[in-house]
């Protein structure tokens, strides 16, 4: 219904541009300041037109004839003349609108649907501005409109040719835009693009945007949904033949055909009974070496190959599928608007059809005959009224698809066409820009020996170095590059690889490694020809090796990612893997004593518990110093490794602490006489008596947050296991030190 309204509006506005000023000859537009009932009655008698929708306003804009104007003057009615000659004004407005229409140049021309006349003008314009395009007139339609198009040719005889047409079906407006755009682009690309130039040197191209002009005009003036031509039928008041059922290829074969004159798929009184089909047939038969034909329709987003009248595979099936897929891919890849290729009924995507034009091209002329069904893919996308905002997208898709047919017909042998080049290809018909020269090692297109090597691959600058690349995760180096004296190497995938490089290690060789992600996975080793390690490192890294200076600065810590085995003093450049360990501690509502086996990245107590800020009421250390989040007061400062803290929460929380895991057996805990808060530094629970066996003599009592206790004197362990995340109140009778057993 909405579409119907749009169509009615379109039809109405087209008529307006044609003769919409005629009813207003010899009239004026006037404004009356006030209207008495007497004047209003008189004006009614004079048959004026009120422009306001409200009839009984006290003031009004009125269209008046000369007689009414005289009456107003003679009766001394106060009025103001707004437009003295209304017809003239409408005509002027129309002319201005037409000017705007005609001034939509370049791609803008393709942003509104164009009439038959506008397309004819465009074809002339293209022909006039192109050295390769000639306007061709194939003949006249039934109603004597010219069926015109463009022939692109750079001369020569019997070249392979391809034929493109739009608008066999009158209502498929986008096909007119797409074929005109195709011709327009081809003319422009011939000048600006050498590949298009080469193609047009090899192939003649025919493009006929409107092969059914009478039907097309009729869709603009009278019936937007007209499909057939406008040729009357004897013994029937119904007009028109479906041109795409009128061809002598399984003509009237019963696949989507009708012998009823009133049907949209009327086959005609005989094959080629339609004037336009005959005109096209005669012209196409005159083309000497027609290789391909593309009949452009809408809508359904399909590329269809022969035959259309049967699902039987044709003798050229393999080639038809290959070109069909190439066109289909080129279209789909233009804007990612998916098209489907098929032959016959395309696996049910469409129906079989007898008497179609491309099947005739294939059966009678031996040209591979295809159908495009352009955008949209369904009626919900606009059907035959593809929104004007999508015309250019459809044009670009059609262009790319159609170009594939030209490329195919050109039967390109791409290669180097410069006879002086070392890779000259005498059979090449298109130069692909690959022409090359011999390099100093005599290799065609080579770039000479690699740095440090001679043409025979010998290392001439000194030593052959072996570089071993490793990735602990096994997915390559994620963009990191190891650069050794300006030569960059990387590993795109996998766990390890080896490179051989050639350097004089008596000189100072600079090394860096950086540029990608997941640097903690990256490591590498540089070995000399005796297999000795010269440098190992990770990423990021900067350093050097070889004969640099007597004192070699670098990172001397083997645990660092940039450890330099040759460094003689540590220059403070050590970098450590940013690998993080995380401990998640579940904290209950109310009081709790927590500790962690992580050395936190952010040890300040306020940072440590910032993720549970809302629920935290207070944190206290063994000395009673407090962190009060609500007061933004941190009296504790940094959390100390190995210690435990009291915390009070308003609800249960999971506290996540990230940093580096503490190695328990390496960490010494010092306890002073009296009470302390003891952390648990292992990552799994274990019996408290075993854990604290080394200081059993000194322990007076150990308590948990909820009051359960271990009393060595009584040999009573109410606590059982120590658990990660928990902390313990401990009282000892002298200063002691101990370490937990290993994890
Ligand atoms: O019915 C037609 O003529 C074409 N479809 S349209 O909607 N534009 O009218 C399709 C003809 C080609 N059919 C096959 N190759 N199956
Ligand atoms: Zn069609």
CATH architecture of the largest domain: 3-Layer(aba) Sandwich
CATH superfamily of the largest domain: Zn peptidases
**Overall strand count:** 41
CATH third-tier fold name of the largest domain: Aminopeptidase
> What is the rounded Rg?
44 Å
Oligomer category: single chain
Provide the CATH top-level class of the largest domain: Alpha Beta
Bound molecules: N~2~-sulfamoyl-L-arginine, zinc ion
Mean pLDDT equals 89
Instruction: Walk across the major sheet and give the strand order.
Output: 5-6-8-7-9-12-10-11
Overall spatial form:
extended
Distance between the termini: 77 Å
How helical, in percent, are the residues? 10-25%
Coarse structural class: alpha+beta
Number of structural units classed as domains: 4
Low-confidence blocks of residues = 1-18
Report on this structure.
23% of the residues lie in helices and 26% in strands. It has 4 domains: 21-86, 2-Layer Sandwich (Alpha-Beta Plaits); 119-232 and 274-410, Aminopeptidase; 464-546, no CATH class; 569-738, no CATH class. The radius of gyration is 44 Å and the shape is extended. It is an alpha+beta fold and 743 residues long. The two termini are 77 Å apart. The strands form 11 sheets. An 8-stranded mixed beta sheet has the order 5-6-8-7-9-12-10-11. Strands 26-31-28-29-30 form a 5-stranded antiparallel beta sheet, with no helix packed on it. A 5-stranded antiparallel beta sheet has the order 34-40-36-37-38, with no helix packed on it. Zinc ion binds at residues 169, 172, 297.
């Amino acid at each position: 219904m909405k579409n119907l309204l749009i169509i009615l509006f379109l039809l109405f506005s087209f008529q307006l541009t044609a003769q919409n000023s005629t009813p207003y000859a010899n009239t004026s537009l006037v404004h009356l300041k006030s209207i008495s009932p007497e004047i209003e009655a008189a004006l009614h008698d004079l048959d004026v037109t009120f422009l306001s929708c409200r009839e009984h306003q006290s003031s009004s804009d009125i269209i008046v004839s000369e007689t009414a104007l005289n009456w107003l003057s003679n009766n001394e009615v106060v009025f103001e003349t707004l437009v003295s000659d209304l017809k003239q004004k409408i005509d002027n407005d129309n002319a201005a609108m037409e000017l705007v229409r005609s001034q939509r140049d370049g791609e803008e021309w393709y942003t509104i649907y164009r009439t038959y006349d506008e397309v004819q003008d465009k074809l002339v314009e293209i022909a006039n501005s192109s050295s390769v395009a000639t306007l061709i007139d194939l003949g006249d339609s039934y109603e004597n409109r010219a069926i015109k198009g463009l022939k692109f040719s750079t001369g020569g005889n019997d070249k392979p040719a391809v034929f493109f047409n739009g608008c066999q079906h009158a209502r498929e407006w986008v096909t007119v835009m797409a074929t005109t755009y195709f011709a327009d682009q081809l003319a422009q690309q011939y000048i600006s693009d050498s590949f298009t130039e080469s193609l047009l040197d090899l192939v003649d191209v025919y493009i006929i945007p409107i092969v059914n002009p009478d039907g097309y005009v009729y869709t603009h003036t009278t019936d937007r949904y007209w499909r057939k031509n406008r040729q009357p039928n004897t013994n029937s008041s119904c007009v028109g033949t479906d041109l795409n059922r009128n061809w002598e290829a399984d003509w009237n074969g019963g696949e989507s055909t009708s012998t009823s004159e009133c049907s949209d798929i009327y086959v005609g009184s005989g094959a080629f009974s339609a004037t336009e089909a005959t005109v096209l047939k005669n012209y196409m038969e005159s083309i000497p070496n027609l290789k391909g034909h593309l009949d452009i329709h809408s809508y359904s987003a399909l590329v269809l190959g022969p035959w259309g009248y049967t699902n039987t595979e044709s003798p050229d099936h393999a080639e038809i599928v290959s070109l069909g897929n190439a066109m289909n891919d080129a279209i789909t890849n233009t804007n990612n608007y998916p098209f489907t290729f098929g032959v016959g009924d395309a696996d049910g995507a469409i129906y079989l059809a007898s008497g179609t034009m491309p099947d005739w091209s294939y059966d009678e002329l031996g040209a591979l005959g295809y159908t495009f069904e352009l955008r949209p893919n369904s009626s919900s996308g606009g059907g035959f009224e593809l929104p004007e905002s999508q015309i250019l997208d459809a044009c670009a898709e059609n262009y790319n698809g159609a170009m594939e047919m030209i490329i195919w017909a050109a039967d390109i042998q791409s290669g180097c066409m410069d006879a002086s080049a070392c890779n000259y290809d005498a059979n090449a018909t298109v130069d692909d820009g690959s022409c090359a020269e011999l390099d100093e090692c005599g290799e065609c297109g080579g770039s000479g020996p690699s740095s440090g090597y001679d043409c025979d691959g010998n290392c001439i600058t000194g030593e052959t170095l072996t570089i071993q690349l490793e990735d602990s995760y096994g997915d390559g180096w994620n963009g990191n590059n190891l650069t050794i004296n300006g030569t960059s190497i990387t590993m795109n995938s996998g766990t390890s690889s080896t490179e051989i490089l050639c350097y004089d290690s008596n000189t100072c060789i600079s090394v860096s490694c950086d540029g990608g992600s997941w640097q903690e996975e990256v490591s590498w080793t540089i070995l000399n020809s005796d297999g000795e390690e010269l440098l190992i490192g990770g990423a990021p890294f900067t350093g050097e090796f070889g004969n640099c200076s007597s004192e070699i600065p670098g990172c001397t810590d083997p645990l660092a990612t940039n450890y330099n085995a040759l460094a003689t003093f540590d220059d403070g450049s050590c970098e450590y893997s940013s690998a993080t360990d995380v401990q998640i501690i579940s904290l209950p509502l109310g009081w709790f004593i927590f500790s962690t086996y992580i050395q936190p990245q952010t040890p300040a107590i306020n940072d440590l518990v910032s993720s549970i800020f809302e629920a935290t009421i207070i944190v206290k250390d063994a000395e009673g110093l407090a962190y009060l989040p609500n007061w933004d007061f941190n009296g504790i400062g940094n959390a100390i490794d190995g210690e435990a803290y009291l915390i009070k929460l308003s609800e249960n929380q999971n506290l996540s602490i990230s940093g580096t895991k503490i190695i328990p057996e390496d960490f010494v805990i010092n306890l002073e006489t009296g009470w302390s808060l003891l952390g648990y530094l292992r990552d799994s629970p274990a019996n408290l008596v075993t854990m604290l066996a080394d200081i059993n003599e000194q322990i007076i009592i150990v308590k948990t947050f909820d009051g359960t206790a271990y009393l060595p004197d009584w040999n009573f362990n109410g606590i059982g296991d120590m658990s990660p995340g928990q902390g313990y109140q401990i009282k000892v009778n002298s200063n002691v030190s101990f370490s937990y057993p290993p994890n």
